[in-house]
Amino acid sequence: MKKILIGSLLLMIAILGAEELRPYRLINADLGTATENNGERVMKLTGNVHFFYGETEFFSNTAELFENQKKTVLAGNVRVLEDSLSLNADEVEYFQVEEKLDLRGNVLAREDHEDLTFRTFAADSITYFRNTGILDAWSDVHVFDERKSAEGYCGILHYEMANGYGYLLQRPKISVDDSLKISAEKIEYHEEFSKVTANFDVVTESNDFTITSDFLLYFEQEQKAIFLGEPKFNSDFADAAAVEMQVFFVEQELSRAELTGECEVHFATRKDAPRDNWIKSQQMIFNFTDGELSLCEAETDVTSFYQQDKKRSKKFMINRAAAQKMKVYFTNQEIDEIFLEKDIDGVYKFSR
């Protein structure tokens, strides 16, 4: 091994920089040494290290630059700055030819937006490709988006900065405004369309309900969610199933639900009571006021059963009816009025 005097270090840096795709520029290092071993020339910088590769800025406690491998290894309080992205880690390997950064240990990536909001990615390890703006994260991944008041957790994350597309794998979970939580086998985000998709074993939860399905499509701007693949709705008041469900929100609170195809709802006459009552049809619409069910509309091949609460009526009534259209009005989560239209078979009688 041959020792090269520190006085020749700057000359060596200039030679190496000329060969790289992005020019190298040293700003500071408390100590620098250069060695050669089996034809591999290595520069080691120690203490308050600060340099550039092109427009990307690097800070660390130590750095080793390998000439033949076209690789730089940084350790200790590593920070990398590039445009709106900042990367922090215990250790970073930079591969100049691939324009790839491998970050390990307490990794935190932060993307700053023009509206002064930010998005962060924390993980045990992250790989970032400078040319494509692709970021991959592994193990204990946590994502936070200040602009959308959303955060997520998963084992694997893939994010493309250029088009705002990303996906989460390995037990992914996301939450929006702490009011809507989604878990699935895979969750995708499409920034261009402000939408979230989730696939397989999807569970969507809010303060008012839980919906399970095979597929979810959620539109942020419209505050609308579409559920496919045997969706099932569950709340303190009712259970429902259909071929397709569409749920609408106002300020993250449930306002409307539309069910299509083989719709079936079982409901109670009051909260936490047995759900002995039911309505079946091909289409259903539920309207909610202040989080409580206020109206149910059923259409096409409607059949229904209603058992009046014994505790609230001196004359206990059991009712069955069928029609092509049905409207049920609720007050304080209890049935107030029922209307049947077209091809009516049966009748409802209520005792007060």
Characterise this structure.
This protein has 1 helix and 27 strands. Among the domains are: 1-82; 86-171, Sandwich (lipopolysaccharide transport protein A fold), CATH 2.60.450. The protein is mainly β. A hairpin with a 4-residue loop joins β9 and β10. The protein has a 27-stranded antiparallel sheet that branches.
Please tag this protein with its features.
mainly beta; 352 residues; lipopolysaccharide transport protein A fold; rod-shaped; 27-stranded antiparallel β-sheet
Please summarize what this structure is.
The protein is mostly beta strands. The chain is built from 1 helix and 27 strands.
Please, what is the average pLDDT? 86
- Cα distance, first to last residue? 100 Å
- Uncertain stretches: 1-20
- The CATH homologous superfamily of the domain at 86-171 corresponds to Lipopolysaccharide (LPS) transport protein A like domain
Helix and strand element order: EHEEEEEEEEEEEEEEEEEEEEEEEEEE
Number of helices: 1
Please write out the topology:
Elements: E1 2-4, H1 9-19, E2 24-28, E3 31-37, E4 40-53, E5 56-66, E6 71-82, E7 85-95, E8 100-112, E9 118-129, E10 134-145, E11 150-160, E12 165-169, E13 173-176, E14 180-183, E15 186-190, E16 195-205, E17 210-219, E18 224-228, E19 232-234, E20 238-241, E21 244-250, E22 253-267, E23 277-289, E24 292-307, E25 318-331, E26 334-341, E27 345-346
Antiparallel strand pairs: 1-3, 2-4, 3-4, 4-5, 5-6, 6-7, 7-8, 8-9, 9-10, 10-11, 11-12, 11-13, 12-15, 13-14, 14-16, 15-16, 16-17, 17-18, 17-19, 18-21, 19-20, 20-22, 21-22, 22-23, 23-24, 24-25, 25-26, 25-27
